[in-house]
Design goal:
The protein is built from 6 helices and 5 strands, in the order H-H-E-H-E-E-H-E-H-E-H. By secondary structure, the chain is α/β, with parallel strands linked by helices. It has one domain: Glucose-6-phosphate isomerase like protein, domain 1 (Rossmann fold), CATH 3.40.50.10490. Strands 2-1-3-4-5 form a 5-stranded parallel sheet, with helices on both faces. Helix 5 links the parallel strand 4 and strand 5. It is globular and about 55 Å long.
Length: 179
């Protein structure tokens, strides 16, 4: 049984690496700089992507950032000096797209998204999109994996790597290379 579990994890990790391979270093650096230069960081997601948004906000809070999940009762209003990170596997989640549209028109904070398609509604509304691909079992570069939520898992891993870079940069004045 353990061999099967190890094989599934190995396949998932290999697939997650393939899903994030196309993210450009410049985009990662801009993502990091935006978080560092924002007054507060807000996250938003729907469905399984909400778990990634919650985890991102929690990780930021644990590391000393003023961060909130949009949709909670105690979440304050977004202001111009803030950034909003939207997580969406489809890039078309109506709640997130509507929130970005309202934020753009009324406040104009920095809007960033983690979604596979920069040409999706969410991607087009964003100042910066991190294109983490969706898992597609027909993609020949990906193994036949049984994890349907690799986008969210990969998003979480990406955010963890970004936070590691931020922590190293702010605490130890060094940067973790993503190359």
């Amino acid at each position: 049984m353990m061999m099967l579990i190890q094989k599934l994890i190995e396949n998932a990790l290999k697939d997650m690496k393939n899903l994030v391979m196309d993210v450009e270093n410049d985009k990662v650096n801009e993502f990091i700089e935006t978080i560092l230069n924002s007054n507060r960081v807000f996250t938003i997601g729907v469905g399984f992507s909400k778990f990634a948004a919650e985890s991102c906000a929690s990780q930021l809070i644990r590391n000393g950032f003023d961060s909130y999940l949009i949709g909670n009762v105690s979440t304050p209003a977004v202001e111009k000096e803030d950034c909003v990170i939207g997580f969406s596997r489809s890039g078309e989640s109506e709640y997130i797209v509507n929130t970005f549209e309202i934020a753009r028109k009324k406040i104009d904070p920095k809007l960033m998204s983690i979604t596979p398609d920069s040409n999706s509604s969410l991607g087009k509304l964003s100042d910066l999109n991190i294109p983490i691909k969706k898992f597609d079992s027909t993609n020949e570069n990906l193994s036949k994996n049984i994890f349907p939520d690799l986008f969210e898992l990969t998003s979480l891993l990406f955010v963890d790597a970004v936070l590691l870079n931020i922590i190293k940069r702010t605490m130890y004045n060094q940067t973790v290379s993503f190359e």
